[in-house]
Design goal:
54% strand, globular, 190 residues, mainly beta, single chain, 12% helix, Lipocalin, 2 helices
């Protein structure tokens, strides 16, 4: 009787505890992750360019509704569709890739709606200037990756910045100071 009572009490205590959160770390898949930027060019069109080399990790704890992201973008991977313009953007007149070879984003907070992240708040560093930004998540999904047979998560997120805040305000307002940053990310569980 005592053994049954002790066992029953132990089981009751275990079931009445809140579920333990389980953080999961994912490594960014660089072949399916791209940061891009869009601006208005002389009022004629919206131009979109991207960076082809993005690395980092994302940690999610969906039960605890927390997370973290640490992302690095190589500046010399900028891709405008024109090698000449790519060289112009990586020169000392713009991103100055020789002095500032990376752009980084480090999260400070994940916000959730239900069981999915809806925003990631963090610090964006460009040309050694760090400013807070909030990435709004427009799409999010986690599932088993059909080819790798591992857990994976993907998301799309967007934010607005002013180029001039990062020392990149040349030719504004002809070339819009307001710039939209977008990230399409896929990451595989470690």
């Amino acid at each position: 009787m005592k053994k049954t009572l002790v066992l029953g009490t132990a089981l009751f205590a275990m079931t009445s505890l809140p579920a333990l959160a389980e953080p999961v770390t994912y490594t960014i898949d660089p072949t399916h992750t791209f940061a891009s930027f869009e601006y208005t060019h002389l009022g004629f069109s919206k131009q979109r360019s991207r960076f082809n080399d993005t690395t980092g990790t994302i940690t999610l704890d969906q039960k605890a509704k927390t997370g973290s992201a640490d992302i690095t973008i190589k500046v010399d991977s900028v891709d405008t569709g024109s090698k000449a313009f790519d060289g112009h953007l990586t020169s000392s007149n713009w991103f100055d890739a020789d002095v500032y070879p990376t752009i980084t984003f480090k999260s400070t907070q994940f916000k959730f709606k239900g069981d999915k992240p809806s925003e990631v708040v963090g610090n964006l560093t460009v040309r050694d200037v760090t400013k807070p930004v909030t990435l709004k998540i427009t799409h999010f999904n986690c599932a088993v990756h059909p080819m790798r047979q591992k857990d994976a998560c993907g998301a799309n997120a967007v934010t607005q910045i002013k180029r001039s805040d990062f020392g990149l305000g040349k030719y504004a307002p002809g070339v819009s100071d307001e710039t939209e940053l977008s990230v399409a990310v896929e990451a595989i569980k470690n």
